[in-house]
Amino acid sequence: MIIAQPKPLEETRRMITPYQRVLIVGCGTCMTVCDAGGEHEVSYLRNALQVAQARSGNGTHTFSEYTLKRQCDSEFLNLLADKVGDVDAILSLGCGIGVQAIAEHFPDIPVLPGVNTSFMGMAKEWGVWDERCAACGDCRLEETAGICPITRCTKGILNGPCAGTKNGKCEANKDADCAWVLIYKRLERLGQLDKMRRYYPPRNFRTIPRPKRLVSKVNINTGGDNG
Amino acid sequence: MVNSLFEEKLGSNEFLVTTEIGPPKGVDISEMVHHIDLLKEKVDAINVTDHQSSMMRFPSVGGCFLIKERGGEPILQMTCRDRNRLALQADLLLAYSRGITNVLCLTGDCVDVGDHKEAKPVFDLDSVQLLKMIRTMESGTDVAGNALKGVPKFCLGASVHPEADFIDPQLVKFEKKVTAGAQFFQTQGIFDLVSLRRFMQFASPFNVKILAGIIVLASARMARYMNDNVPGIIVSQAIIDELTNAEKGKGLQKGIEIAARFVKTIKEEKLCHGVHIMAVGSERIVPDILEAAQVSGAHR
Question: With a cut of 0.90, is the ipTM above it?
Fold first, then answer.
């Protein structure tokens, strides 16, 4: 899923400065799961902005709030239609996709990002998420025992560990495991060390043209294979 | 055909000595020139570091120009950290056009350990891919398969870490570097000859020259700092204790003594094919180490 972090309150306050009536919109999927922009965070942010405004003594903003099931699908965005009539700006607590989806859907209303979208990851433990995929468009996980060197090696290198690893940890972050030590150990466990000995050529960055588009080949009338 | 004096020496049975200089942070090259003149006749080749520890410096290729101009033998250090495959190839063409043909191919330290932590790390290639790319250029095409007008030829080196605490994946990578075209290796700093002996048992069957990395430590504090902050460096407790017990104010002298002892032992016991001395900012003391180790001048 997509992981994000709330923006610092002061940054959010600066962003909303020009706008009086602000609708704060949460997202019920990834942003809720990673505690960045679900219903709870929308309500918390609204309260925090109101308190900060009261303290500063220049009460110019009025807030409303709403949390969609998903911000990245236009069918859900239709639910906002009757909530945006009198707002000056929408503060989206969706990921970067949610913010842009709202902006496309409501071209006349400024949309502000309330979170910093960080990465795609998985929950490691309660309240801790780790990056696991860079959506590079050229998945190598079969070669690397299911451990992604693109995201988990700081340098994203393909032919084994650099010489900076110490105690099995990364030279850039002593708390992070060296991806290539993990890959080596798991390949050894699987009896596949020959995969480590292969030469892997430079990455083909044409597999990741931007902006990406994926067109599903499923025929919605007849069914059939997807891809 | 050999491409450089250094490559010719690699083919001999000489005990090889290389060292390295770090270019300045700025345009005052006087100290670097001084170090080049001091060292050029005392060693077989001089590496010029490429933004060592990810600290922005005068470029490695610029330092190599100076060595060449002053009659020395340069080894161009090239890391993949700051340049994509276009820039790496272009710099190699430039180097070759100025007679710089010895290249040490490195992945490069993380940007995070340096002084421009907010920079975008490149790592378009890794060290193995860089070696292979250069061999491709020598066959007459760039890495994209387009013909080159005028074909370069290089003598290629790489690094290896015999003291890594988990050595197995490092050995796999060493082998990949040999296959990709490395002719010589300069190791990470060696602080324990046991690990060098063990590594050489593995490396001896390969047709490459191994130069043991010798880092000169000026104090116990520096040793501990390097253990904590410099990627891949593991200074043994025995060395730290020896530096701690050195007479006050004589830390560097002790460091020279330790380095010279390593060089002498490695040479006498023929543990590997040579040494690469890294004085990390104290290039001026390299001749003292060579003299103390009795390898200065005599053999070259």
Answer: yes
